[in-house]
Amino acid sequence: METGRIIDRRAGRTLTTKEAEILAKEINKIEMPCKFVFKNTIQHRGVLVFRGGLSDDISGNDPPSSQNIKPIKALDENDSTYYTVNIINEFLEKVFNALDKHPINEKRRQRGLMPANYLLIRGAGIESPKLRFYRNWVAVSYMPLEIGFAKTSGMKVVSFKYPKQKKLDVYENLQKGLKKACKVSIKAIKRNYKKFDYAYIHIKETDLPGHDNKPFEKKAMIEHIDKTLFNFLKKFAPSKKIKVVVTADHSTPCRLKDHSSDPVPVLYYPADDRGPKEKRFTEREARVGTLGRIVGGELFKVVGFS
Fold it and tell me: What is the pLDDT of residues 60-87, one digit of tens each?
């Protein structure tokens, strides 16, 4: 394993939900000196929990791109941290031994697919993060991370069970998830706009085509959001005097196949009849927009959100 190489961080995005569930059960059979649980979530992702006074001051092993496997390392000199590092590295080696020759992965190789035979871990933590509370917010969240963020922030969460990936084409699965997300978002706004002051809606799917260098798939996703969710907001928000802010947490250019530090555009539609003078929501229009260039921490203040 010390000389192993990560070929694809996502097993080619072809891992079905059923395969992930079977492999997760195999991982949970591994014997370790402390209790743990591994839970597969959506597509190739999962959550790993160890119990027993371990440290979170450790490195991850999830690289930005294909490269040699690196062991988990201690980030301080505490004995508990070194113990944690030894536990995790031992566990990761056992995971590989359990999964590499598993019938699921043998069948995947026979079909010309990448095996899902290792775990990449990141973001270790031993306690819930302390976040600002947004009690008068409702959140439409369906990815595990966003659900956790919204709940920790005190938001009312409106969610749905993400469609299972039954075929090799992850984009068929993503299209189903995106359509569901837009429908649930519209219903949530209609039902809750009088009960809450703000609504937080996070759309995940458009990020993935950027990582995969699939501009046409990204374009199709954006067009679907525009024809459904944004078309609804265009009619609903002005009549109810609702402010709308649209932006992104980062750029994922198809050419880079990764996140970048490029500025992200912001669309602000005030709760009156003025509306933005710009006619299109694009990076080019945003460069000369009335908001100017701001940093993320200034956004709520600029648009008048509390």
Answer: 998 766 678 889 999 999 999 999 999 9
| Whole-model pTM over 0.85 | yes
- Nearest to residue 10, comparing CAs of 50, 44, 61? 44
Per the DSSP assignment, residues forming a β-bridge with 211 are none
CA distances 133 to 109, 136, 151, 239, Å, are 47, 9, 9, 29
pLDDT tens per residue across span 132-187: 999 899 999 999 999 999 999 999 999 999 999 999 999 999 999 999 999 999 99
Tell me the C-alpha to C-alpha distance, in Å, between residue 14 and each of 10, 22, 44, 100, 168: 8, 15, 8, 16, 5
Domains, the chain, with CATH or none:
11-110 (no CATH), 137-261 (3.40.720.10)
By residue count, the chain amounts to 306
Residue 141: which of 156, 158, 153 has the closest Cα? 158
Q: 198: which residues sit within 8 A by CB, 6+ positions away?
A: 134, 136, 137, 138, 305
